[in-house]
# Entry
Amino acid sequence: MEVGLEDVSNFDVLVVGGGPAGCATAIRCAQLGLKVVLIESKPFPRTHPGETLHPGVEPLLKQLGVLEPVLEAGFFRHTGNWVQWSGAREFVRFGEDDSGAWLGFQAWRADFDAILLNQARAIGVKVVQPCHASHLLMDGCRVIGVETSLGTFRAAKIIDAAGGNHWLAQQLGLEIQYHSPRLIAYYGYVTGECSARDIAPAIVADSCGWTWTAKVRAQLYQWTRLSFGTQKIPKDWLPNEFLGLKISQRMRASDVSWRIVSQLAGSGYFIVGDAAMILDPTSSHGVLKAIMSGIWVSHSITSEFVGNLTELQAIEQYCLWIHNWFQHDVKNLTKLYASLPNPPFWI
# Structure
């Protein structure tokens, strides 16, 4: 889309990235009365691994104004997951209350991300797509804008929500702290019928790693494989339960090494979602972290603008919160992997 000169400056907030973290930031900032522009490099729909969402995400979706369209999207829902970790396979329920069992979502990310981006547009966020961020615009040590394929965008606050390549951190030379060796998750899709996965997803550990399987759409199933070693898996590899089904898309890979950016906020910027920190999918909170970090940052920016927080206070509070959450999850994941009969050597 073409952008006029009047559109590329004088924003309160510029968000780089149109995934859940970026959209949550943009939506909540707009709800709080800020002028927001969001740039996304890829046209939608875009491919992205499916996501199992815990029922606890529903209040956040409601706050963002997207719960109804998410409920209407037809995502498969389930009461828990099958888990085979250090013993026999068991069904682990999400929980229940007086209203009944809690239901998670098996979200098809192309649809889920589109719902969030459409909501951002609907409430006044200027969405520029496709638009590639090239480098930061600085005023001394302060981030004041982004040079893009469609011109220069300036804003009081720049938000990196562009994912695990850590774009802003790379631009500023920020340290990325690793808490695991290199971990690569491979994933793919098959078509057909697998009745064992029609009720709920499953995660099954073995001596070399773990495999996650789920039904993500009608007659479409997804698998994810993480091996603790460095060996690659064959390009036609499939979990045993999917043998005989037809491979739908080529296998892909994602770097899920445990890592966090050392300085998650600074003069003129915040980093949210996977751009801030990544853990492997057994942490099962990727989208939850993305949305919560976006909402937190939105409130921090608003509080700073109205004088309830200084910029330094906003920076310190956000960094402390994210680092504490990350350390908590690292501790729990380490304990989880240590419980395996053959734990990875680096635990």
In short: The mean pLDDT is 92. The two ends are 49 Å apart (CA to CA). The longest helix spans residues 311-338.
